[in-house]
Amino acid sequence: MITIRTRNTLRSALAALLLAFASPLLAHEGEMGHVPEDGSTVQGTPEEIGIHFDGAMRITQFDVIGPRGRVSLEDQPGNDPTEEYHVRPAGDLEPGRYEVRWRGLARDGHMMSGTFRFTVED
Question: Does position 4 have pLDDT exceeding 80, yes or no?
């Protein structure tokens, strides 16, 4: 006959085992860095604007919003998963605050999104 103490020990062991196997399933790719860095101030138009992830991400939206609205970019999101996504502004950026809004699909199928900001000075 199984005692209550043994039953509780078995339940605890089973719960720990399930959590150990579930942890990788709960992990998502995340932002590792930005170009320019979030909150930074750059002198003149940055050569590139981008984001780095800790796993493959398929970027579905990448918008840069500035003092005059949406900024034209030379590149647009593609279909290939990547750990780094960079674009170049199509023209010079005027001084002011900029916000980058991105959205992507992680390899596990979860939609991810985020923002980061930077300031351009003369």
Answer: no
Least Cα distance to 45 among 37, 36, 54 occurs for: 36
DSSP 8-state secondary structure symbol assigned to residue 43: E
Q: Report whether pLDDT(9) > 70.
A: no
CATH number of 28-121: 2.60.40.1220
Task: Identify whether the C-beta of residue 59 lies closer than 8 Å to the C-beta of residue 78.
Answer: yes
Q: How far apart are the C-alpha atoms of 46 and 43, rounded to whole Å?
A: 8
- The span from the CA of 61 to the CA of 34, in Å, is 16
SS3 89: strand
Domain boundaries along the sequence of the chain = 28-121
Span 47-91, pLDDT tens digits: 999 999 998 999 999 999 999 999 999 988 878 899 999 999 999
Q: Structure pTM?
A: 0.73
